[in-house]
Amino acid sequence: MDKRSRPDLSNQTIIILLILVISGLVIALSPVIEHRPGSASAQWSALFGLLALLAPMLFSLLKRGGFSENPPFWFVTHVVCACLGVYFILFHAAAGNWLSPPGAVLILLLFLVIQGGFLRISISSRFSRLFARSAIAGGFAPATVFNKQHLQALIEYKQQLLLKLDNSATEALFSPNLGHWMRHPWLTLCYQKLIAEEARMIGARESAGFWLAWSRRIHMIAAALFFIGLIAHVIVVLFFAGYAAGEGEIDWWYITDYGAGWGR
Questions:
Q1: Is 35 domain-assigned?
Q2: How many domains does the chain have?
Q3: Is residue 251 part of a domain?
């Protein structure tokens, strides 16, 4: 892809998107907002927010599944839609109870956006400096002296395993995706363990530091927890509206009102 046509987001654009999210948070916490999460406008806002938040999920599936031919485009779409989705969801949740399971899901969503913005603005540049420094120095600095013969044997084992896992891939560039996990879970797990062992031997994580090494994993785990919570919330309000309303009135559109009286 031509570098000039490569989609990207500047730090200024990301800051503007974060300001949009913060403005949505201010609106959500404002005492002048009187609508309830079940009102018509709030339900439409929830629907728009849900549709926007499907883009980050789709981005993750395409990236992890190896199906995306234009990852930068989907990354930009993922960031923009995530911020817009948060804005709509915050309007939906305005005047709602934040000290509740749905409130916890919303707080997790805010964490994802803020941490993701910080990763893009700060951590990505630190990754670039790390790899530039490693290239100049001739590689990562290992935390301890390692056996070169053992490292060579490990790489050869990876190459043998890769022939069974994906014989069209190159060991130096290969990274398991969702498709590999689904087709060959055991082989992929074994290969992933070898990757971790190799990284430990050459000191990659030690050179990166804790935050650089774990930031993406924290983001992915938080995203998985958020979508699980979001799906659970949608199921409850649509199919167990009686339970969600508690002793109050069901003032939103729902499919069934199972659960009325539960937990009283």
A1: yes
A2: 2
A3: no
Structural domain contains residue 139: no
Nearest in space to 9 (alpha carbons), one of 65, 83, 66, 64: 83
Burial class (CB in 10 A: 0-12, 13-18, 19+), 74: buried
pLDDT digit string, tens, across residues 214-247: 777 888 888 889 989 999 999 999 999 888 887 7
Domain check: are 167 and 118 in the same one?
Answer: no
Is 250 a member of any domain? no
Rounded to two decimals, the pTM is 0.68
pLDDT of residue 239: 92
94-102 CB contacts, 8 Å cutoff, 24+ apart: 94/27, 94/28, 94/29, 94/30, 94/33, 94/35, 94/37, 94/42, 95/33, 95/34, 95/35, 95/36, 95/37, 96/36, 96/37, 101/229, 101/232, 101/233, 102/229, 102/233
What domain range includes position 89? 3-134+210-245
